[in-house]
Amino acid sequence: MTKGVPDFSEGVVSFDEDGHLERGKTPTVMNPNDAYALEAALQTKVRHGGTVSVMSMGPPGYQEVLEEAMESVYADDAYLLSDREMAAADTWATAITVATGIHKLEAEAGEEVDLVFAGFKTADGETGHTGPQTAWCLDWPMITHVIALDVDEEERTVRAKRLVEGDIEEIETVETELPALIVPDPEFAPSYHRASHRLTHKDLRAETRERVNDIDDLVTVWNHEDLNLDPDYIGLDGSPTIVESVDPIPKAPSEREATMIDPADEDAMGEVLDELLPYAD
Questions:
Q1: How many separate domains does the chain show?
Q2: Is the pTM of the predicted complex or chain greater than 0.85?
Q3: Helix/strand/coil for 119
């Protein structure tokens, strides 16, 4: 699971008169915390094989987000849940839609999904609700704050090390049956100790670079009718959250002073070198 979030670095964030984010008018990037989920999914694919699919909910412009996600996780395909009935959804309505998308993916593939990886939290809402709520909708066990994990294919279990309440000084090991939802912590770091894993990682990267050139053929778009979802339970109408007010986020002004140097000015370039030499160790 991944999500597109406003590119706050540009300072161009558009809201309508009701305080809802107008994603079509706002520059979008992949949610930074989703990178850890993608790394965990990739590590699982390298170690155990299988197929990785990337799924997101959002407007048609999210295809660029899916492309970035595919390149990160070396995914086999991508799914975009998108239409106007899904717009302005809060985390609960989003979870219902995503969980339904996962069930449809299982039906289309003719096999069960073993693991779903979700980001820690999003850069726009920062609630951290969507992953856990999706697990609830799926009726799956969930492990959060994961910093390391491995799968026992024969026993069909996943064992993970997780931070206790986000404390990097306290770690516990937990195990649960598949299928399960995993929420990696920002402290998650993939490991590929075996030579075979490193070779597989290299091969997957090469394959994906070729495959992502045909991104249009790899993204499947499902609307609410494809998912057989009642509009009253998704999007704005299905969202119990009420936005009281929204404060604009201005682009942060630059506070750095800059001195222009002509490369042809030997004296000035010498001064630059003198400034940098103390940092060269």
A1: 1
A2: no
A3: coil
